[in-house]
Amino acid sequence: MIRTSLTAASVAILSLSMMSAPASAATSRIMYYGATERCEAVDPANFTGLRYRNVGVYNASNASIQIACTLPAEFVADVGATDIWIRLHNFKNAATNVNCTVFAGSRATGTNSYPTTGSIDPLVSTWRTFSSVDRVDGSYTHYALACVLPPGVELSMIRVSETDAGDGL
Predict the structure, then answer these.
(1) Superfamily (CATH H level) for 23-163
(2) Continuous H helices in 19-77
(3) From CA 77, how far away is CA 145, in angstroms rounded?
(4) Where are the beta strands (DSSP E) in the chain?
(5) What is the value of pTM for the model shown?
(6) Nearest to 50 by CA among 128, 132, 150, 143
(7) Is 162 within 8 Å of 29 (Cβ atoms)?
(8) What is the distance between the alpha carbons of residues 72 and 29, in angstroms, rounded to a whole number?
(9) CA angle 68-70-72, nearest 5°?
(10) Tens digits of per-residue pLDDT, 122-166?
């Protein structure tokens, strides 16, 4: 009898200690995408020098290659509250310019574009940032990335950080 009472009391105390106030959902979400998963040559027949390596999409040719990447958007994320980073690597012994543009939106709602151009020093890796990307509308939208990769340059990673003030993420 004493053993039964102690067991019941122990279970009750353990149950109470495991109960806590409900946790609120995260207000932001960061997703990492590999370029080999999300990107491809705009014209694959003419860009045979594009190499899909384990860690990135690499331009092994002697000419620039345009690539396009599609990224999903979270429906509940706030419009205008997304930051996108891309990881670029220059394997050449000379600095080179890389042009990239992020597009956000859809054909139905319109799109916003965020172009960037910049030099990458020889034999280094760098992050490019697109801040406060606005998807125009929260429904049926996505992000797209277009880059012109010079010879010897690789795009390895895309990082998307979305925020929701309503705790829906």
Answers:
(1) Galactose-binding domain-like (2.60.120.260)
(2) 35-38
(3) 19
(4) 28-34, 39-41, 50-53, 56-59, 65-72, 82-90, 96-106, 110-120, 125-133, 142-149, 153-163
(5) 0.78
(6) 150
(7) yes
(8) 13
(9) 165
(10) 999 999 999 988 887 766 678 899 999 999 999 999 999 988 777
